[in-house]
Automatic annotation (TrEMBL):
Belongs to the glycosyl hydrolase 28 family. This is Polygalacturonase. SMART domains: PbH1. GO terms for biological process: carbohydrate metabolic process. Residues 1-15 form the signal peptide. The keyword Hydrolase applies. SUPFAM superfamilies: Pectin lyase-like (SSF51126). PANTHER family: PECTIN LYASE-RELATED, PLASMIN AND FIBRONECTIN-BINDING PROTEIN A. Keywords: Glycosidase, Hydrolase, Signal.
Amino acid sequence: MCGLVFMAFIAVVQAADINILNKGAVADGSTLNTLSIQKAIDECHQTGGGKVIFPAGRFLSGTIVLKDKVTLYLEKDAVLLGSTELKDYKNMDPFTEGLGIDVGWALLVAIDARNIGIEGAGVIDGQGSAIKAKHILTDTRPEGQRWGLRPFLIRIVRCTGVKVSGVTLKYAGAWTSHYFQSKEIHIEGIKIESVGVAHNDGIGIDGCQQVRIKDCDIVSGDDALVFKTTSAKMACKDIVVSGLRLKSNQAGIKIGTESMAAFENIKISDCHIYDTRNGGIKLLTVDGARVRNIEVSDITMENVRTSMLFRLGSRLSVFRKEESRQQTGILDRVTIKNVKAVAADDAQLTPPSGILITGVPGHDITSLSLENIEITLAGGGTEEDAKVLVPEAIDQYPEIKTFGPKIPAYGLWARHVKGLKVVNVKFILKAKDLRPPFVYEDVKELINP
């Protein structure tokens, strides 16, 4: 009997939560707490897992590493504050992003971990603008070359069983949250407010599987919700997204640009996209990926500069040094339905256009279905605008402006497509536009009842 009681006591001890104050953390916003927080995480992991609790207060830290069966729990008014000193960060999984910059430093990292979490009503604040202000005092290179040294807020790498809920993520030094080659991810009820420096993507899903994202509110300086595959080794697949509010200085919902492994079986629904400075929905494969079985439905958009871009291209970039260049991929079996959008009058394309679709010669986009779509546009196109030739830009970065500044259709322009279904797609003009609503170039098997 005594032995059983002792064993039960040991089990309780092993599951005990740890308050970081008890490991020496100081909640003054200026004391560097990296070692104290890491000590709490390590001890929690070593004794069987549980919660590492951040009570109310401001806890400054550099890179901390989350371990198996550990959940960081930030209580109300708790703030995990990123250091403004670059020397306080580590890059535990280096890679190159889509513009060719080496990246990977981060505030909160998990590598090859299982059953981890980030939860609570508190805040993780990367102090991105303050990091940049200090960084540029000593690094005089152009911004496009130096930004990669600044830390992501959260990096989850090759993990299984990840839950992120309730927390607010603010002001990353680069990408806000990056999930790489991980499985069984559940993200729910989080808020992101990450603006102030370049490349502040909101939620980045990179080669992950069995992902659920629900009821989140994202305001980001770069793409709000973005799916990537920076490695050819693991596809993005089996993903369900619903109930998001998305504001972005770039795209609201995006697949690519980094696109080496496949994107398959992805469903996105019931989202509101607003005040984007770029595209509302952008589906892009330019580095060899297969994109197929994608459904985006029940979407509203307000003040988006260009509503949709679909691009199959042949940039064929490589982002991990050990991997090889690939062949042109495919974009197949994509359905977009039940969308109502109001485009911004001020757009990258002048005058604005609604939907751009283009493959490259010899590589068609296939089986693309557009159903029940209404887009309101500014109008203003001329007869001369209707004659413009759009560049192929076969190996270029797949941006809306790459194909501009003018498109010959005010509504839908499609090129190099086989099997395009257009059902109940209409465009409402605020002013007269002398371009046609639909222009099809090298489009085979058009279904337009």
